């Protein structure tokens, strides 16, 4: 089966004090469709994360993941708060 081609945009929502990842959000814009802006992607990711009652009061932050680092999401456990990178 052939994979659809499109533009992937990914971000992770993480706890602002610990760096623990609480939500991963990916959107694919198929050819001809407009890709979401970084603000739109961030807003949607935070809204979805905050739908979970345990996350509503946490200091959540968002890290946008560059396409070349999306493969690292399978093993990423948290965000390094100083470097703003996946670890």
What report would you give on this structure?
A hairpin with a 5-residue loop joins strand 1 (7-15) and strand 2. With 87 residues, this protein is α+β, with helices and mostly antiparallel strands. 15% of the residues lie in helices and 32% in strands. It is globular and about 40 Å long. The chain has one helix spanning 38-50; strands at 7-15, 21-29, 60-65, 79-80, 85-86. The mean pLDDT is 90. The protein contains one helix and five strands. The strands form two sheets. It has a three-stranded antiparallel β-sheet with strand order 2-1-3, covered by helices on one side. A two-stranded antiparallel sheet has the order 4-5.
Uncertain runs with pLDDT below 50, 5 residues or more?
Answer: none
Share of helix, binned: 10-25%
What spatial form do the alpha-carbon principal axes imply?
globular
What pattern of helices and strands is seen along the backbone? EEHEEE
Tell me the structural class: alpha+beta
**Tally of strands:** 5
Q: Spatial order of the strands in the main sheet?
A: 2-1-3
Mean pLDDT: 90
Tell me about the biggest sheet? 3 strands, antiparallel
> What is the rounded Rg?
14 Å
> With helices defined by DSSP (H or I, 4 residues minimum), what is the helix count?
1
Q: In what range is the share of β-strand residues?
A: 25-35%
**C-alpha termini separation:** 32 Å
């Amino acid at each position: 089966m052939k994979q659809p081609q499109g533009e992937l945009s990914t971000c992770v929502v993480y706890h602002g004090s610990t760096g623990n990842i609480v939500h991963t959000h990916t959107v694919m814009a198929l050819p001809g469709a407009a890709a979401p802006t970084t603000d739109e992607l961030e807003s949607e990711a935070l809204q979805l994360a905050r739908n979970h009652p345990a996350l509503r009061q946490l200091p959540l932050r968002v890290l946008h993941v560059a396409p070349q680092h999306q493969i690292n999401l399978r093993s990423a456990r948290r965000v390094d708060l100083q470097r703003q990178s996946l670890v």
